[in-house]
Design goal:
Elements: E1 2-6, H1 10-21, E2 25-29, H2 33-40, H3 51-60, E3 64-67, H4 70-76, E4 79-82, H5 97-112, E5 117-121, H6 129-138, E6 145-149, H7 159-164, E7 169-172, H8 176-186, E8 196-199, H9 201-232, H10 236-244, H11 265-278, H12 284-297, H13 299-307, E9 316-320, H14 335-345, E10 349-353, H15 358-364, H16 367-370, E11 373-375, H17 379-383, E12 388-391, H18 403-409, E13 414-417, H19 424-429, E14 433-435
Parallel strand pairs: 1-2, 1-4, 2-3, 4-5, 5-6, 7-8, 9-10, 9-12, 10-11, 12-13, 13-14
Bound molecules: uridine-5'-diphosphate-xylopyranose.
Uridine-5'-diphosphate-xylopyranose (UDX) binds near residues 155, 219, 254, 265 and 324.
Length: about 450
């Protein structure tokens, strides 16, 4: 099939590349000329495991092309994916201006190149957006077309895998013609028998928000259980194993930590809350989820204050991990941003390392915070001579360090672990003071 993808952010690029890999001809469009040039030269502009390999293959086989002109992608394509940014607007509602501006252009192009096409909303958009896009295009043209909602469920760091082997594909359309085309396009990805679920546009749009809000709630619930564990002297690891074996609850996404971050959960929880509000419904549980997550992100700072009796000024602290989760350079809404900001304000000096996210972290942080930070090239240099170590992200390389080295090279072997990486007995044997999330503190 011939496919157009408008917007080559993380969703658009993964979508375009994976469709090209399954034998389609794909033209991706972006307004950023430099980025388009880089991609034309075979460069992948984002860090996403496995993407380079699939991208190189698609380019080599001449099935993946890049342009700055929507028209070029539009002419030939049967299906056009809109993968445009929908940033949070002034009032918490997603800003649709990018999507609607492109819809406007599509209307003109339909007049220039008449013929049936399917326009697909792939970005996460508020309920009712398919209708809005349809309306915008229909203002310009009489040509037959359909607008379909097809939310992505891609985890950063596992996006290629999630795209290639989706647990489900959700397609929101009431048009049989569009549903057939979308089914043909996605069939190669669900050979293992996973479903393509066809539903109406609004339910599909809401499905995306419901999935992310449910997952954010699940994590937040576990974070609150962890906070209770700390109070009553229980261990959240045991509680997690105890409840996760109930298949109604499930084992995944039950890991307590320093809160969820990233580009999706915070934005989507806020957006569905806002949509409900607009329709006169108060989504109370999500109020709490947002509030709890905010305080969870800096819970480690509260633990440090307690440990040092409020006296953190002049301390030097090491930081392992800056990205909001492993295998990505994304630091959007990462707990590290909030933790470092608060520590800098309290006069703490920091030495930080992350395998991928140092540059993105620097771009997102204030000069005030950065003036208290030094960045190093490897995990081990962080801990030399520091008064404590904070673990913000569970990168694999932090999971199995030489436990004896902490006591050898740190001023004091104190670890505040926001991701529960170490076994409590191992920490005790290594002589560490070890404070984690929802588990008894060691050597305190
Ligand atoms: C998420 C959804 O999983 C994906 O389906 C959606 O389309 C986009 O948003 P992503 O933001 O890449 O993907 O991250 P994900 O792996 O889901 O993790 C989200 C956050 O939850 C991270 O901050 C992570 O650290 C946190 N998390 C996850 C926990 O704190 N505990 C867990 O048990 C799982």
């Amino acid at each position: 099939m011939k496919i157009g993808v408008i917007g080559t952010g993380y969703v658009g690029l993964v979508t375009g590349t994976c469709f090209a890999d399954s034998g389609n001809d794909v033209i991706c469009v972006d307004i950023d000329e430099k980025k388009v040039q880089r991609m034309q030269n075979g460069e992948v502009p984002i860090y996403e495991p496995g993407l380079n390999r699939v991208f190189d293959r698609a380019i080599r086989e001449k099935r993946l092309h890049f342009t700055t002109r929507i028209e070029e992608a539009f002419k030939e394509s049967e299906i056009i994916f809109l993968c445009l940014p929908t940033p949070p607007g002034a009032n918490g509602q997603a800003d649709l201006s990018f999507v609607l501006d492109v819809a406007n252009d599509l209307g003109d192009l339909f007049n220039k190149y008449p013929g049936y096409k399917v326009i697909v909303n792939k970005s996460t958009v508020p309920v009712g957006t398919a209708d809005k896009v349809k309306e915008k295009i229909a203002q310009k043209t009489d040509t037959e077309f359909d607008v379909v909602s097809n939310p992505e469920f891609l985890r950063e760091g596992a996006a290629v895998e999630d795209f290639m082997k989706p647990e489900r594909v959700v397609v929101g359309t009431t048009s049989e013609k569009a549903a057939d085309l979308m089914t043909t396009l996605y069939e190669p990805f669900v050979r293992s028998g996973n479903p393509i679920i066809i539903m109406d546009e609004r339910s599909s749009e809401l499905t995306k928000y419901a999935a992310n809000a449910m997952l954010a709630t699940k994590i937040t619930f576990m974070n609150e259980i962890a906070n209770v564990c700390e109070k009553v002297g229980a261990n959240v690891d045991n509680v997690r194993r105890g409840i996760g074996t109930d298949t109604r609850i499930g084992k995944r996404f039950l890991f307590a930590g320093i809160g969820y971050g990233g580009s999706c959960f915070p934005k989507d929880v806020q957006a569905i809350h806002h949509t409900a509000d607009e329709y006169g419904y108060e989504f109370k549980i999500l109020d709490s989820v947002m509030k709890v997550n905010e305080s969870q992100k800096v819970s480690i700072v509260d633990k440090m204050k307690l440990y040092y009796n409020g006296n953190l000024e002049g301390k030097t602290v090491g930081i392992w991990g800056l990205s909001f989760k492993p295998e990505t350079d994304d630091i959007r809404e990462a707990p590290s941003l909030y933790i470092t900001e608060q520590l800098a304000k309290m006069g703490v000096s920091m030495k930080a390392y992350d395998p991928e996210a140092i540059e993105t972290f620097k771009e997102a942080s204030s000069d005030e915070t950065l003036s208290k930070m030094q960045f190093v090239e490897d995990r081990d240099s962080v801990i030399d001579g520091v008064d404590a170590l904070i673990i913000c992200t569970e990168w694999n390389e932090f999971r199995r360090p030489d436990m004896d080295r902490f006591a050898e090279v740190m001023n004091e072997p104190v670890i505040f672990d926001g991701r529960n990486l170490y076994d409590l007995d191992r920490a005790r044997d290594a002589g560490l003071t070890y404070i984690s999330v929802g588990r008894p503190s060691v050597n305190i």
